[in-house]
Design a protein that fits this description.
heterotrimer, A mainly alpha (316), B alpha/beta (260), C mainly alpha (314), A: 316 residues, mainly alpha, ABC transporter involved in vitamin B12 uptake, BtuC, B: alpha/beta, Rossmann fold, four-stranded antiparallel β-sheet, globular
């Protein structure tokens, strides 16, 4: 299918599913149901774009199709920070109650983590991508142990707040936070969009890209900062989406006719939104809320990933 | 002209470049030759600003190369690195278009499209411009990369062992393109070559390196003689002159090299 | 020879320290005088704790090396292949579906879940024939997180989530005489692994090579899985989940002693035990008299060790 037709098709499908989600079984109730669903829809759009952009860019700058910000420990750091806040300041502190403030300091923490990562992505050659993976995995594992410990030693009220953070769901989104996140995501996405040509050039490898005038150090620093902001947005809005990023990145790579970011970024964003809408529709109408979106997504990602590997395995 | 002054580089306790002083003449094709570990690629990487030397300086038309900004340098010097085989899902046309990045930052104007078309035409790749890279043969892929570097339209071209893994026809084709660029567009070309015969027949100037030092630098006729080459490569080499050009003969050695 | 004596002395010192340290202080003098309180502390809390530490450490380290041999991959261990998560799910299922069941029954259910999950994972990995070895822990973690998510969702619905987390967080302060005997199962299993050390080493070289040397591949894998599942289930039930032990210890020992299990297995077991005892001492000393759960200490120390030898190539 032609590149532009693909985007148009996905776009139309998303609009269709979005309308279904909004209007189906709502009784056209403009007082409560429709506004509620609109907010959730906005959250899905914002989260989808944020995850797609952050994962795709991360894979480009690490020149690898397996790593994602989630695997590199970003989400663990976020969850750990929330648990630490609860432990140190208690539930009633403004750092937890005021969502904007919480978002700002979580983003700062993630930016700090990015700086650390960048120092290290830089001092080693990218051949050590697997080493990086190990570092990321280890941080994630330690992070989840620490988080479990904090959760265990917190009061039931604190625990229920923290456990909300650890499961992905669209139910938490509330209007102000979603609007703010949406605007910020658009801003960040537009910065990334402006750098799409430089990202394309990174495919040739760091050395060759440098001979064409791409300042890799600067590019990496900027991209990692933008990725940190996007991860903060998606995790605070939707919760940890873990391996969903790999699913989106690889799906869009499989279906995309071209490697250029001009096509892959919008396609990935649309795929993410489509999958979110599908998952939410299934949970609401097929499973009647007996399961959670997070679980459904994880099952799909796991299943897709295994099928992907089976299809591309070495035939010996 | 590129002028190298007092260039030194070491990795750990290995001295890769030892106080190099050499000039690369403008509008000429210079071949860098020498055995493995001589430092040819390291010198080229320093010229390309992909490697920072420990001391010394390199002057491009009288100006220190470190004074250029990265985008400006990319408009002066184009480098073809030794490319690692990656799964590139790029079309030939898209790859060549990358060469215009220093000039247009990705937004292609008419002048860029013209440059791309000219580069494809020069390398004979116009019928292949929509082919995907990993479906081409190794030789065609290298020519595509060559086209990218040509499209960059810089006065200086640096190439690191561009003939590796090329069959005879594509290798000759590439050398002919380099000579064309030197003659018709007055470009300064510096190539690292392993193949002595390619250097002997296509280069104007030759710089011979050994263990981080420059042993000989000058006209091809002066440098590529039996004595200098034999000493450089530690192997008896004869240089024969035929009506088609020079031929370096080092086959059928009387002495065994594999056993003591 | 001297090196072994020295290491042995350090090991004994660690054990002694573990026996003597704790919230309730007593001295050797008191023991000598047959002080009843001191003896009670020793026999009902300290000694069981030491035994649990020794056996869990040895057991988890041996599980790690067995999984690495079965999957022919250095990054396999119960934590990165979903075994611990499957056992967790088993415990939860048993607690909900068979309320009031005996501890051994719960352990049996956990064991069966763990066995089924590991078998599935091994079959999957063999079918996938991964080009990059390092992909295995990612797949394992993905698989484990799916199992974990199912368990968490189920627990959440049954209002059991926080207590489940508490139950399964590695913590040796739960170990009291009368409630920990299940852990003694590990001893015969470790001895059994040692008996088959030679076989397991060959297993690690791949199905084809093993087969051509006359090894019964399938039976051996079944045996290995049974050993691993039992050790994981019993340690999970007695003390909870402790990450990194199976991953870090075999690598450390392999660097010094090579990959032949007949030589390295005893060292792996003892190193695992020593590692856990040291972590336990650390958890008890850092915030004296409060205790940090060992899962946390082992994660941090294990992570540091793992990172430090990722930096130095083999």
């Amino acid at each position: 299918m032609n590149k532009s037709w693909q985007l148009v098709f996905c776009g139309l499908l998303s609009v269709l599913l979005a309308l279904t989600y909004l209007l189906f079984d709502s009784g056209l109730d403009t007082e409560f149901i429709l506004p509620n669903r609109l907010v959730k829809l906005l959250a899905m759009l914002t989260g989808g774009i944020a995850i797609a952009c952050s994962t795709l860019c991360f894979q480009t700058i690490t020149e690898n199709r397996i790593l994602t910000p989630a695997i590199m420990g970003y989400e663990s750091v976020y969850l750990l920070w929330q648990a630490l806040l609860v432990l140190l300041f208690g539930l009633n502190s403004p750092l937890l109650q005021d969502l904007q403030l919480n978002f700002v300091c979580s983003t700062l923490v993630l930016l700090g983590y990015s700086l650390l990562l960048q120092r290290w992505l830089f001092s080693r050659s990218l051949q050590d991508v697997w080493q990086m993976l190990w570092y990321g995995l280890v941080f994630s594992l330690v992070g989840s142990s620490l988080t479990q410990f904090f959760q265990y030693s917190s009061s039931p009220a604190e625990f229920s707040l923290l456990s909300q953070y650890s499961l992905a769901s669209f139910q938490r989104a509330e209007l102000n936070q979603t609007l703010f996140s949406a605007l910020l995501t658009l801003l960040v996405a537009s910065f990334i969009w402006r750098q799409r040509h430089q990202l394309d050039l990174l495919q040739l490898g760091a050395l060759q890209a440098a001979t064409l005038g791409v300042n890799r150090a600067l590019l990496l620093r900027r991209q990692l900062a933008l990725i940190a902001i996007l991860v903060a947005i998606s995790t605070s809005l939707l919760g940890p989406t873990a391996f969903f990023g790999i699913l989106i990145a690889n799906l869009s790579a499989t279906f995309s006719r071209s490697q250029s970011h001009r096509h892959r970024l919008p396609l990935a964003a649309l795929c993410a939104v489509l999958l979110f809408l599908l998952a939410q529709l299934l949970v609401e109408h097929l499973f009647n809320f007996k399961t959670s979106v997070g679980l459904l997504l994880q099952l799909c990602c796991g299943g897709y990933f295994f099928m992907f590997l089976i299809k591309h395995r070495q035939t010996s | 002209m590129i002028s190298v002054q007092g260039l030194t580089k070491r990795y750990g306790n290995r001295q890769v470049l030892q106080d190099l002083n050499v000039d690369f003449a403008s509008g000429k094709l210079t071949a860098l030759i020498g055995p493995n570990g001589a430092g040819k690629s390291s010198l080229l990487m320093c010229l390309a600003r992909l490697l920072t030397a420990d001391s010394g300086q390199i002057l491009l038309s009288g100006q220190d190369i470190q004074a250029f900004s990265l985008p400006d340098y990319a408009k002066q010097v184009a480098t073809l690195c030794q490319f690692q085989a990656l799964q590139l899902q790029l079309k030939v046309g898209e790859l060549v278009a990358f060469g215009r990045f220093p000039h247009s930052q990705g937004r292609l104007q008419r002048s860029d499209h013209l440059a791309i078309a000219q580069a494809l035409d020069l390398l004979g790749l116009t019928p292949l411009q929509n082919a995907v890279l990993h479906e081409l043969s190794g030789g065609q892929r290298q020519l595509a990369f060559m086209a990218m570097v040509v499209a960059q339209q810089t006065p200086y071209l640096l190439l690191d062992e561009p003939l590796n893994n090329l069959d005879l026809k594509h290798a000759v084709q590439l050398m002919q393109v380099l000579c064309h660029l030197r003659d018709q567009q007055q470009k300064t070309v510096i190539v690292v070559l392993h193949d002595l015969n390619m250097a002997a027949n296509y280069a104007d100037q030759v710089v011979a390196m050994q263990q981080g030092c420059i042993r000989h630098a000058g006209d091809v006729g002066q440098v590529m003689t039996a004595t200098t080459l034999s000493e450089l490569y530690q192997l008896p080499i004869q240089v024969l002159h035929t009506e088609l050009g020079r031929f370096c003969h080092y086959f059928n050695q009387p002495e065994k090299l594999y056993a003591c | 020879m001297l090196k072994y004596l020295g290491l042995g002395a350090i090991f004994c010192l660690l054990c002694l320290a573990s026996l003597l340290l704790g919230a309730k202080q007593f001295s050797l003098a008191q023991l000598w005088q047959s002080d009843p309180v001191a003896w009670l502390t020793l026999t009902s809390s300290r000694l069981p704790r030491l035994m649990a530490l020794l056996l869990t450490g040895a057991g988890l380290a041996v599980c790690g090396v067995l999984m690495q041999q079965m999957l022919q991959n250095r990054f396999a261990d119960p934590g990165t292949t979903g075994a611990i998560d499957a056992a967790k799910l088993g415990i939860l299922l048993a607690m909900v579906l068979l309320p009031g069941a005996a501890v051994t029954v719960i352990m049996l259910v956990a064991l069966l879940c763990c066995l089924a999950s590991c078998l599935f994972f091994i079959l999957l990995i063999n079918k996938l024939q991964l080009r990059h070895r390092q992909l295995l822990p990612i797949l394992g973690l993905m698989y484990g997180s799916v199992l974990s998510a199912i368990a968490e969702l189920y627990a959440y619905q049954q209002q059991l989530l926080q207590s489940m987390q508490g139950l399964l967080l590695g913590d040796f302060s739960k170990v009291i005489a009368g409630q920990y005997e299940l852990i003694y199962l590990i001893l015969p299993l470790v001895l059994c692994s040692y008996w088959f050390a030679h076989h397991f080493t060959l297993l690690g070289m791949g199905q084809q090579l093993a087969g051509s040397l006359g090894l019964r591949y399938q039976q051996l894998v079944w045996l290995g899985l049974l050993l691993v599942a039992t050790m994981v289930a019993s340690s999970l039930m007695t003390v909870g989940a402790i990450p990194f032990v199976g991953l870090v210890i075999p690598q450390l020992v392999a660097r010094h002693c090579g990959d032949h299990l007949a030589q390295s297995l005893p060292k792996i077991a003892l190193s695992g035990a020593a590692f856990l005892i040291s972590c336990d001492l650390l958890s008890r000393l850092l915030l004296y008299p409060y205790e940090i759960p060992i899962g946390l200490t082992a994660s941090c120390v294990g992570a540091l060790l793992l990172l430090s030898f990722l930096r130095t190539p083999a």
